[in-house]
Structure formats: structure tokens, C-alpha cells
From TrEMBL:
Residues 231-318 form the Beta-ketoacyl-[acyl-carrier-protein] synthase III C-terminal domain. Residues 247-251 are annotated as: ACP-binding. Keywords: Acyltransferase, Cytoplasm, Fatty acid biosynthesis, Fatty acid metabolism, Lipid biosynthesis, Lipid metabolism, Multifunctional enzyme, Transferase. This is Beta-ketoacyl-[acyl-carrier-protein] synthase III. It catalyses: malonyl-[ACP] + acetyl-CoA + H(+) = 3-oxobutanoyl-[ACP] + CO2 + CoA. It is found in: Cytoplasm. Belongs to the thiolase-like superfamily. FabH family. It is an enzyme of class 2 (transferase). The last Arg residue of the ACP-binding site is essential for the weak association between ACP/AcpP and FabH. It comes from Candidatus Propionivibrio aalborgensis.
């Protein structure tokens, strides 16, 4: 018994916001700095009335339509986000209500930019155990809410969006291997170190990052976890048709490709158009590459993420 992706969907709010648009909105930056350091040209930013569950709803509906199924059939909803609508209930439960599903198990996964890889890993275990048959796995973020627009070293990097897959029990492959890890001792290099207490925000409600430390860490673990996942499936990295890394920075993606000995033509890249959408970045990129025909049934696809925590994980699948 495998867990197999039967439908993919995604959603981006509003119109693309260019690097020059950010400059015009008062961020002290320029297109050349952002593009040469990160590969980002545009990102999408949700307006203040739009929440992660709103974005998840659109992506989820598209994934359900692609799978030819409806929300009532789902028995599991896992939503990865670091920008939930509320402290509670979970964004997965809010999505469930918006989709009109009743009775599915629904919960959030919080692993920042590794969230989708973690969520897919968890969903696969439920399906392979036989306890659940049809899951909606979503990554959805409104990261623009936690950006300090006075901090040009971080605010230019991120965007909003959502991506989703329907995962079903199947005799055909299927997810072939998964790997996921964390090392909380690195929590300080990427965090939103605030909380709510007594009706007030205590600490800092904005994203803070040591960019160079994150960069080095990301390249190392993305390389290691891809190799680990290939070993788990008994294949070599060269047998992978497509790699969909977390879309944080083109230089991180290029360094990972070099370390894995793979050409960039195997990597799906959307960071130029989406920026870093955290837990949404992998399913957004997957949806782009499935819809434009690059990823076809039978292709071996490696999804891999890294993010605050620090967390990292990979899922190798036959699409
Ligand atoms: O999901 C994981 C998310 N995190 C990441 O992907 C981050 C990984 N790290 C990186 O991608 C890079 O470290 C950054 C792109 C964040 C920064 O690149 P860097 O080459 O490490 O630059 P830096 O922070 O060392 O800054 C270099 C210069 C500084 O100026 P001075 O002090 O040399 O005069 C910054 O003030 O670049 C300046 N700078 C900017 N200039 C224009 C920083 N941000 C900007 C900006 N526009 N937005």
C-alpha cells in the first residue's frame, strides 16, 4: 500500500509585487541587490483581510478538483503554517469548515519552511497504516504579517500563498521514502521570538534572521536529507527526475544542486516569481511544474525543505 498524490493545486493572492514596487513603498532596496543575492523578482502579498485558511481554501479546492474528488470524501486534513489565522482553533479546522467537510481528523503542523515536507510525511504514515484513506495536505502562509517592513534584510525575501495535494491510499506508487529531522539548538538563527500574554505581545512579533548562518545550515542539510531519502528508497540522486527544494534563495538551490552532483535543469525554481512562501513554497512549485507539464506520471520527484527550528525534511515520490 502506497500513499499517492492524486491532485495538486495552489493559489497566490493579488498581483505580483516587484522589487521596484517595494522600493516605491519605502523599502530602502533595489532590484539588482535582491535579484543577485536571492533570485527573487516578484512575490505576492495578501491584503489584510485575507488569512492563511482563505488561501488554503482556494489551493485545496483546486487540488480536490484535480483529483476528481470532493471535500466530503476527506478523512484527514493536515495544514502546515507558521502564520495561522488564530492561536486556536487550528487553521486546519477553519479550512475544514470552509470546505464543508465534517468528521475528518484535522490539525496543523508547525515546522516553518519544512512544514509541507513534515505534513506530507505525517500524512503518508497515516495512509500507509491503513487508518486513513484520503488526505488533503496543505502549506499556507501569510508571511507578510510577520515581516518588519523597516528591516530590509528580511522583508524583501518573503511572500504569501498556498499549495495543496490530495494524498490517497493506492496500490501504485506513491511516496517511496521520507526523512525528517530537527535540531532545536539552532532556534535563534531564524525565529519570531514573541508571544501573547495578558492581552499583549511579549517579545518581538517580527521575523528575525541571521541570513548567513541560515544559508550555510540550509545547504548542508538539504544535501544530506536528499541523499538520506534516496538511500531509503534504494536509488541514487542521479535517478531523480525532478527536485523541488524549498524556494528560499536561488543561491541555496544552486549550491545544493552542486553538492548533490545534479544539474540545475532538474530543479523546479519558482523563487523568482513567488519569493519565499515558507510552508507553501514546495506545493506551489509542485503545482506549477505539474500544470506546465514538466512533471509527468511515473517521474521520480524529490521534495525537500528546511526552516526555523531548525527543521528539515524530504519526501521522495513517484508521481
Ligand atoms: O527559509 C529560509 C529563509 N532564509 C533564507 O533563505 C536566508 C538565507 N540567507 C541569504 O539568502 C542571505 O544571507 C541574504 C540574502 C539574506 C543576505 O545576503 P548577504 O550576502 O548575506 O548580505 P548581508 O546580510 O551580509 O548584507 C550585505 C549588505 C549590507 O550592507 P553593508 O553593511 O555591507 O553596507 C546590507 O545592509 O547588503 C545590505 N542589504 C541590502 N541592500 C539592499 C541588506 N539587505 C538589503 C536590501 N537591499 N534588501
Amino acid at each position: 500500500m502506497f500513499a499517492r498524490i492524486t491532485g495538486v493545486g495552489s493559489y497566490l493572492p493579488g498581483q505580483p509585487v516587484s522589487n521596484t514596487d517595494l522600493l516605491n513603498r519605502g523599502v530602502e532596496t533595489d532590484d539588482e541587490w535582491i535579484f543577485s543575492r536571492t533570485g527573487i523578482r516578484t512575490r505576492h502579498l495578501a491584503d489584510s483581510s485575507c488569512t492563511s485558511s482563505d488561501l488554503a481554501l482556494e489551493a485545496g479546492r483546486r487540488a480536490l478538483a484535480a483529483a476528481g474528488t470532493d471535500a466530503g470524501q476527506l478523512d484527514l486534513i493536515i495544514l502546515a503554517t507558521s502564520t495561522p489565522d488564530f492561536i486556536f482553533p487550528s487553521t486546519a479546522c477553519l479550512l475544514q469548515a470552509k470546505l464543508g467537510n465534517q468528521g475528518a481528523m484535522a490539525f496543523d503542523v508547525q515546522a516553518v519552511c519544512s512544514g509541507f515536507a513534515y505534513a506530507l510525511t505525517v500524512a503518508e504514515k497515516f495512509i500507509r497504516s491503513g487508518s486513513h484513506k484520503k488526505a488533503l495536505v496543505v502549506g499556507a502562509e501569510v508571511f507578510s504579517r510577520i515581516l518588519d517592513w523597516e528591516d530590509r534584510t528580511t522583508c524583501v525575501l518573503f511572500g504569501d500563498g498556498a499549495g495543496a495535494v490530495v494524498l490517497e491510499a493506492s496500490e501504485a506508487p506513491g511516496i517511496l521514502a521520507t526523512a525528517a529531522h530537527a535540531d532545536g539548538s539552532h532556534h535563534g538563527i531564524l525565529s519570531v521570538p514573541g508571544s501573547v500574554c495578558g492581552g499583549k505581545v511579549i517579545g518581538d512579533p517580527f521575523l528575525r534572521m541571521d541570513g548567513q548562518a541560515v544559508f550555510k545550515f540550509a545547504v548542508r542539510v538539504l544535501t544530506d536529507v536528499a541523499k538520506e531519502c534516496c538511500e531509503g528508497a534504494g536509488i541514487s540522486p542521479s535517478e531523480v527526475d525532478w527536485v523541488i527544494p524549498h524556494q528560499a534563495n536561488i543561491r541555496i538551490i544552486e549550491s545544493t544542486a552542486r553538492k548533490l552532483g545534479l544539474g540545475m535543469e532538474k530543479f523546479i525554481v519558482t523563487v523568482d516569481q513567488h519569493g519565499n512562501t515558507s510552508a507553501a513554497s514546495i506545493p506551489l512549485a509542485l503545482d506549477v511544474a505539474v500544470r506546465d507539464g514538466r512533471i509527468q506520471r511515473g517521474h521520480k520527484v524529490m521534495l525537500e525543505g528546511v526552516g526555523g527550528g531548525f527543521t528539515w525534511g524530504a519526501v521522495l515520490l513517484e508521481f
